[in-house]
Amino acid sequence: MAVVLVLLATIANATALVLQRKAAQDSARARGISAGTLRDMVQRPAWLIGTSIFAVAVALQATALSLGSIALVQPVLVMELPFTLLLGWWVLGGALRRREWIAVAIMSIGLVVLLVTLQPSGGDALGAGTLTWVLGTAVTMGLLWVTSSVAKRSRTVTRAACYGIAAGIGSGFVAVIVKAMSEALQREGVVGVFTTWQSYLLIPVAPAAFLVLQHSLRAGRLLASQPGLILGNPLLSSTWGIALLGEEINGGFALLGGLAGAVLMVIGVFLLSRSPLLAAQEGGPRDGSGAARHSPGKRRRPL
């Protein structure tokens, strides 16, 4: 059930990203890249609808985390990328070719191999000591700050890549906090959520993660930001789950199977991230060359 719920969450999240991308695209076309672009983007209907759907995705993911371990739930989120391409075709135009379908198949096989061989389970987010949480939080927020700072001082590809990594780290840490909150809810009800100090980490972390995500959507070409955004979340959250929160995975030769599955997933993500369709969906002033310019005849379906 946890896997089914997180798959639904990936579909909802992909829908939200496509709609937010459309808002960013329309805003960039209308105003160009300027300080007012972000303000203009968040006022557009597509962005507002996308944000509402994103809230549904968060609820589905939270429910999935309450039923399964972080290392089981979060890797499934990589399927957000193929869902994003499919939905992007419907909203923004384009067509999936053999290359994209092969990449989707590689990702799907890799995910199945990873989960079947490692079989993540157990863990106790609230059972981890306070020192573990404090040190883990300090390191995680340090990584988020470093990647965001490098992004601000960089240009083009490096800027987009660093913002993508930062967005992945932020969303992965939000999942870790939500896992702790879901355990508190199961044990002591709503009162437990408000009396668990980890819950209050969500107050600074969630807005920061959301803001970094918005920057990653408009920092540069998506083929640079997408791998970090897609892979950073499960990598960060699964590391927390296994290394800090006591989640268990199969050892021995199963680790080799898990590694093989992870490699396949990474290959699939990078192949899809470099899809001409994804590049064509960027549009706007920042995409004055490349796939969008060479495909004037492609249809654009209205929202």
What would you say this structure looks like, in words?
By secondary structure, the protein is mostly helical. Helices cover 76% and strands 1% of the residues. It has helices spanning 2-31, 37-41, 45-67, 70-73, 80-92, 98-118, 130-152, 156-195, 202-218, 222-244, 253-273, 276-280, 291-294, and strands spanning 121-122, 247-248. The chain has a two-stranded antiparallel sheet with strand order 1-2. Helix 1 crosses helix 5 (80-92) and helix 8 (156-195) runs antiparallel to helix 9. The protein is globular. The model is unreliable at 283-303 (pLDDT under 50).
What characteristics describe this protein?
303 residues, mainly alpha, two-stranded antiparallel ribbon, 13 helices, 1% strand, disordered C terminus
Produce the secondary structure layout.
Blueprint lengths: L1 H30 L5 H5 L3 H23 L2 H4 L6 H13 L5 H21 L2 E2 L7 H23 L3 H40 L6 H17 L3 H23 L2 E2 L4 H21 L2 H5 L10 H4 L9
Antiparallel strand pairs: 1-2
Helix pairs in contact: 1-3, 1-5, 3-8, 6-11, 7-8, 8-9, 8-10, 10-11
Brief rundown of the structure:
Helix content is 76%, strand content 1%.
Count, helices: 13
Average pLDDT works out at 80
The best one-word shape is: globular
* Unreliable parts: 283-303
- Read across the widest sheet, the strand sequence of neighbours is 1-2
Structural class: mainly alpha
Q: What is the string of SSEs from the N terminus onward?
A: HHHHHHEHHHHEHHH
Distance between the termini: 32 Å
Radius of gyration: 19 Å
Main sheet specs: 2 strands, antiparallel
Helix content: over 70%
The count of β-strands is 2
Residue share in β-strands = under 5%
